[in-house]
Amino acid sequence: xxETPCHLLYEGKAKKVYTTTNPEHYIVEYKDDATAFNxxxxxxxxxxxxxxxxISNYLMQYLQTQGVPTHLVRELTPARALVKRLTMFALEVxxxxxxxxxxxxxxxxQEGSPFEAPVLEFCYKNDALGDPLINEDHALALKLASPxxxxxLRALALRTNTLLQAYLEDRGIILVDxxxxxxxxAQGQVVLGDExxxxxxxxxxxxxxxxxxxxxxxxxxxxxCQAYEIILEKISHA
Length: 238
Hints:
Structural class: alpha+beta
Strand order of the largest sheet: 1-2-3-7-6
Low-confidence stretches: none
Number of helices: 6
Mean pLDDT: 95
Radius of gyration: 17 Å
Shape: globular
Order of helices and strands: EEEEEHEEEEHEEHHEEEEHH
Helix content: 25-40%
């Protein structure tokens, strides 16, 4: 059965989500909008949505081959993907391999400082509160996940980090840090959702340490889509 968009279910800063003729599937459409600092900084970058869709689909397809369950069913168009309907956890799971961004500022660390082991953080997904940093006890107190679900989220996030680090290193890219979101499918399995793209990851060129991600927009470095194109080219070639 051909699955087509029915109703706009949700529109966020970077994506639109539509219901389909199949109640177990959604269609995600990636937008060309760019935002930073909780929406304070905004722009439209022609082609960004297509780049994010294709990059995320490449990386999710790879993770699926390595046993990490994801919501991706298939790519539909350059800017749209068919995905499984998930009941999302109100949590962001952040994995950091090098100090950067908010963590570097919060702890007074020099950008690019390596950690002996990956650092995992949780944020409470709540726009009104600015997605605050929380710990596992907070997550339990707020009933955002059960103890076993938190263990699963941690294990899947760290497994994803191990896989992506190796995959990207082979292609000349440093995975500095990234944000993941998870949900449960119709069978109750915890599944990786949302996206894996330069909007949600920090990617640096392994040789030059040039930033190839959304920091180019945040920091007014320019050539945002050109950087995303570099990532797509590197990951889509063996």
